[in-house]
Design a protein that fits this description.
The complex is a heterodimer of chains A (330) and B (286).
Chain A: E1 12-21, E2 24-34, E3 39-43, H1 50-57, E4 65-70, E5 73-74, H2 79-84, E6 86-89, H3 101-111, H4 116-129, H5 145-157, E7 163-167, H6 175-191, E8 195-200, H7 203-206, E9 211-216, E10 219-224, H8 226-233, E11 235-242, H9 245-256, E12 261-263, E13 266-272, H10 274-284, E14 289-295, H11 299-307, H12 311-314
Parallel strand pairs in A: 3-8, 3-9, 6-7, 7-8
Antiparallel strand pairs in A: 1-2, 1-4, 4-5, 9-10, 11-13, 11-14, 12-13
Chain B: H1 17-37, H2 39-64, H3 73-102, H4 105-110, H5 116-139, H6 151-178, H7 182-198, H8 211-218, H9 221-234, H10 241-247, E1 252-253, E2 256-257, H11 260-284
Antiparallel strand pairs in B: 1-2
Helix pairs in contact in B: 1-5, 2-3, 3-5, 3-6, 3-7, 3-9, 5-6, 5-11, 6-9, 6-11, 9-11
Classes of the chains: A alpha/beta (330), B mainly alpha (286).
């Protein structure tokens, strides 16, 4: 591998990318750069334009406007070069269930022209990585959902792509399997020299990324590290149990100027640097306190602070608005 | 056995004909693996030809004995049934594209850095080999209809079946490029196959047909395949010249009887054209 195309350049570079389907503008002009070796996450509700963006980067959809390069190649003009240098794991399964795990991988290797001299070793390596070497002769039909997804990840890696695209890699899997898939992805980040570009609508999964772009209605509304995004929300969430909650709420307003409300059976409020605030709270609040909990803002809080609703709200789920963030809503 | 510890890095080569050839081969191989795994399908595809040959053929023999110059109707039907026996498996092979689309595997093929034409060629060759394999089972029934085995005619017939299967698979792939549901695909296949079969001379000789019917048989590629198979087989069947003129009239363009080799060429060219159309369809899709 020459590597010359990426020297000092981004693994993924997007400028003013737009995708329109008739009247509908699925992606409305986005810009981003992903550094080589980075794990980059695209976070947003279903229909935000994440998959459309990934499809354009993988040469599966033509951009309406704007440009993008992947591994140093232009996605429209150098389609085959892009394809040689990317691995794909789609949201929907794309395995031949009637073939064995190894037959699926060999099929892929032939389509990508993987040199026969290294194929055997590479096959072993990727199957070992996802813990499926001992099942290589089983038909994929007999695999569980998690095993199939792992096999797809192994297949996506088989030809040593420089950028691996994972579109909702854990969608439809149970929490335990999701966790194990993330274990494998973490492992491959360490062992392979690779850039990972993924989408998810699970907030907790976005934590695994080096940087996250939050996407909503076809636009990137925030882009930073998970820690920085959470810091941008600014305040920690403090919950206290007291002998007299109503008195506590009044006292918090009068003494500290904080807006508190009863939430999940506890007096809840947002405050900067919550841990330093706790000693003051004990010293100065007249109402006896029975317990305290301080929580850092989650990515849920981040998404909410930028969009005014939670991802679950967006997708039609039921979730009450969090009063301590109401002040930051736009 | 020890696990490989140093990461093996793979360098994917630039596109080349050699790479495309590997793609043709692996698509073909998959076709063979899938066919071999699905032995039920082999049995099912055998039912229809056997039904035509032994049930319909035997039943109608009494009716037609006078008109066939004493020839067993089953012997007459045999070449047509051979052609018919490759139709179903060829269409099944092509139809698997529709399944692959539904189950996502087609996407795995379409995103690969390989020419779409190579994928279509691999599919058509794979379908041709699989369908011919199915035809061999029917070919083995020759003695049961009074035709003795011999290397010469059987070898030629296998070649003819390969060409015909290729063209039929290409026809199916062309349809599968446009039709997204398997139900739709099977409906279309049924709609096309029966008329093709009836207008091919597989069931009755094409001598003395009314003009409009005769015109339709001439534009049917299956006609040329059936005639080529029948002439090859009947070179080894003893019948009177009078019967031969009625039962194996050949295909004529104007007054010219089309030779077997030209008939084969017609079938092959139609197949290549359909393959090109199919490849065009797949090049355009995402």
């Amino acid at each position: 591998m020459s590597g010359r195309e990426t020297n000092g350049r981004s693994a993924v570079e997007v400028r003013g990318l737009v995708k329109r389907y008739g009247e509908i503008e699925a992606v409305r002009g986005i810009d981003l750069d992903v550094a080589p070796g980075e794990t980059f996450g695209f976070l947003g509700p279903n229909g935000a334009g994440k998959s459309t963006t990934i499809n354009m980067l993988c040469t599966l959809a033509q951009p309406t406007a704007g440009s993008a390069t992947v591994a140093g190649y232009e996605v429209v003009r150098q389609r085959d070069d892009v394809r040689r240098n990317i691995g794909l794991v789609f949201q929907d399964p794309t395995l031949d269930l009637y073939l064995t795990a190894e037959q699926n991988l060999r099929f892929h290797a032939e389509l990508y022209g993987v040199p026969r001299a290294v194929l055997g070793d590479r096959l072993r390596q990727v199957l070992d990585m996802v813990g499926l070497w001992d099942r290589k002769d089983s038909r994929v039909q007999t695999f569980s959902g998690g095993m199939r997804r792992r096999l797809e990840i192994a297949r996506g890696l088989l030809h040593s792509p420089r950028v691996l695209f994972l579109d909702e890699p854990t969608v439809g899997l149970d929490p335990q399997t999701r966790k194990s898939i993330w274990g494998y992805i973490g492992q491959l980040r360490r062992s392979e020299d690779i850039t990972i570009f993924m989408t998810t609508h699970y907030m907790d999964e976005a934590e695994y990324c080096d940087r996250i772009a939050i996407m909503d209605h076809g636009k990137i509304i925030a882009l930073d590290t998970p820690a920085a995004l959470k810091a941008s929300v600014g305040k920690d969430r403090v919950q206290i149990q007291t002998d007299d909650n109503l008195a506590a709420i009044t006292a918090l307003r009068e003494r500290f100027g904080l807006d508190a409300a009863i939430h999940e059976g506890a007096v809840t409020f947002a405050v900067a640097e919550g841990e330093q605030f706790v000693p003051r709270l004990f010293a100065e609040l007249a109402v006896p306190i029975r317990s305290v909990s301080v929580a850092r803002p989650s990515l849920d809080d981040v998404f909410m602070s930028y969009t005014g609703s939670t991802i679950r709200d967006r997708e039609g789920g039921q979730r009450p608005m969090m009063p301590w963030l109401a002040g930051r809503m736009r | 056995m020890s696990a490989v510890t140093v990461p093996v890095r793979v360098a994917v080569p630039e596109r080349s004909w050699r790479h495309d050839l590997r793609a043709v081969k692996v698509v073909l191989q998959r076709e063979l693996i899938r066919f071999w795994q699905d032995r039920m399908r082999i049995v099912v595809a055998l039912v229809q030809p056997v039904l035509f040959l032994f049930v319909l053929g035997s039943g109608l023999t009494a009716l037609t004995r006078a008109g066939s110059g004493g020839l067993d109707l089953r012997t007459f039907l045999f070449p047509g049934v051979l052609a018919m026996s490759v139709m179903m498996p060829a269409m099944f092979s092509a139809g698997s594209i529709v399944f692959d689309r539904e189950y996502g595997f087609l996407r795995e093929m379409l995103v690969a850095p390989v020419s779409r034409t190579a994928l279509v060629v691999g599919k058509c060759l794979g379908g041709a080999i699989v369908a011919t394999g199915q035809g061999l089972l029917v070919l083995a029934l020759a003695p049961a209809v009074g035709i003795s085995y011999s290397v010469g005619w059987m070898f030629s017939v296998v070649g003819l079946m390969l060409v015909l299967s290729f063209t039929l698979t290409a026809l199916g792939v062309m349809a599968a490029g446009r039709i997204k549901s398997f139900q739709g695909f099977m409906a279309l296949v049924n709609m096309i196959m029966m008329p093709m079969l009836f207008l091919s001379g597989a069931m009755f000789p094409l001598s003395g047909l009314p003009g409009w019917l005769s015109a339709l048989t001439h534009i049917n590629p299956l006609t040329y395949a059936v005639d080529a198979v029948r002439r090859t087989v009947f070179d080894h069947v003893a019948i009177s010249e009078v019967s031969r003129a009625v039962l194996v009239p050949g295909v004529h363009w104007g007054g010219w009887q089309v030779p077997v080799l030209v008939e084969v060429a017609v079938v092959a060219i139609v197949g290549v054209i359909m393959l090109a159309v199919a490849a065009g369809e797949f090049r355009k899709s995402d």
